[in-house]
Design brief:
The chain is of the alpha/beta class. The protein has two domains: 232 residues, P-loop containing nucleotide triphosphate hydrolases (Rossmann fold); 115 residues, HprK N-terminal domain-like (Udp-n-acetylmuramoylalanyl-d-glutamate--2,6- Diaminopimelate Ligase, Chain: A, domain 1, 3-Layer(aba) Sandwich). α11 links the parallel β15 and β16. The longest helix is centred in the middle third of the chain and has 16 residues. The chain starts with a strand and ends with a helix.
């Protein structure tokens, strides 16, 4: 069975979500797929090596026996691109990718390969998604965000580059489609893709629960200090509010599962937010205190007893709130509820039978 290469039209279109869902569905069918992200731009230190964070996720979720290096052979470290431009020899990198593929295929009947961004990403160092798919002899599925005009335009660009590398594109998966528009968009994009010579493989509806994050993820992402409530860092956040208004208005905005951003010297709003969150649940929501102000000592016992996780940032309120405006957190191995939901969404809304059938041709 040929490798399946999961590409996308833009960053954060949903490649990892689709890869997770497909991996689980293949396991359901008693297939043991391997996984590889040949070119990783967002890496972490994992078992002593720089490994793309998606490779770490797959390694942990599916308890893969392969050494992490084989899941993420090339990490684009600082200076990597500049170094390549002045010494443009891509052959060692290609050999490294092929060696990892061959190693994975010793223990797995097939591989799910996850790309990095759109078809052209990586061209600056000779490893565009199209080129990597070509050397791996993969068939491609393109993932794009929901919509009609813009996704079709972006898909056209990707199709052209894959065609130039003589790589077969099996079709397209629309992701994050607004549920109330699902039928109309699916029908229209299906015809639009047929006009381009490809097909729609599925349309996955937007599920806001997949965007929820935890207080601990915020602390980890921005390296905020945990003042108290460390046992509740797994609290899920569904709403974020800046409590810089007068105290009598704060309660209007502090709902269940809210992350409240408060200037650290606003004792009144800190107190009201704590009471509102603790009233709804013994471990609910969270607070970020901004400005680097240490809370008044007389508040500390109340903070600790509330069990609400409280983070401390030295940055001003505007900076902290601006960071949260468009933040998107990667799925982690401990996000069991999100992983289960992705499994169900891919099973229900993606034509995996057709994908597997085409991989065997």
């Amino acid at each position: 069975m040929k490798p399946i290469y999961i590409s996308a039209t833009l960053k954060d279109s949903g490649k990892t979500s689709v890869s997770l869902g497909l991996m689980q569905l293949l396991h359901d069918r008693k297939v043991d797929p391997g996984y590889c992200k040949p070119v990783g731009q967002h890496y972490v230190q994992y078992q002593g090596k720089n490994i793309d964070e998606d490779g770490v996720l797959m390694h942990q979720v599916f308890n893969l026996p392969d050494e992490p290096y084989y899941l993420s052979p090339i990490a684009i470290e600082r200076g990597f691109t500049t170094k390549f431009i002045f010494n443009p020899d891509v052959s060692p990198l290609e050999k490294e990718i092929l060696a990892c593929r061959d190693h994975i295929l010793k223990t797995h009947p097939m591989i799910i390969v996850e790309g990095t961004g759109h078809a052209g990403v990586g061209s600056c160092f000779g490893l565009s998604n199209a080129r990597v798919a070509q050397i791996l002899d993969s068939k491609v599925v393109i993932v794009t965000s929901g919509g009609i005009g813009r996704p079709l335009d972006e898909i056209a660009l990707s199709l052209a580059l894959f065609a130039d590398h003589k790589v077969e594109v099996l079709g397209v998966i629309l992701n994050k489609v607004l549920p109330e528009k699902l039928d109309r968009i699916r029908k229209t994009v299906d015809q639009g893709l047929k006009n381009m010579g490809t097909r729609l493989l599925g349309a996955i509806p937007y599920d806001p629960a997949l965007t929820f994050f935890t207080v601990g993820q915020v602390a980890e992402e921005f390296q905020y200090d945990v003042l108290c409530g460390a046992d509740s860092l797994s609290n899920r956040i569904e709403h974020t509010v800046v409590a810089a208004m007068e105290p009598q208005h704060v309660l209007e905005y502090v709902k269940d599962k809210t992350l409240v951003i408060i200037p650290g010297d606003r004792l009144d709003n800190i107190l009201i937010s704590l009471l509102a969150l603790a009233e709804n649940s013994p471990d609910n929501g969270g607070l970020i205190l901004t400005g680097g102000f240490d809370p008044h000592p007389r508040l500390m016992p109340l903070m600790k007893n509330s069990k609400v996780p409280i983070l401390l940032s030295k940055e001003d309120t505007f900076t902290v709130s601006s960071r949260m405006a468009d933040i998107g957190f990667k799925i982690r191995s401990y996000d069991a509820d999100k992983i289960a939901r992705l499994h169900e969404l891919v099973r229900q809304f993606v034509d995996t039978d057709l994908i597997l059938e085409r991989l065997q041709c």
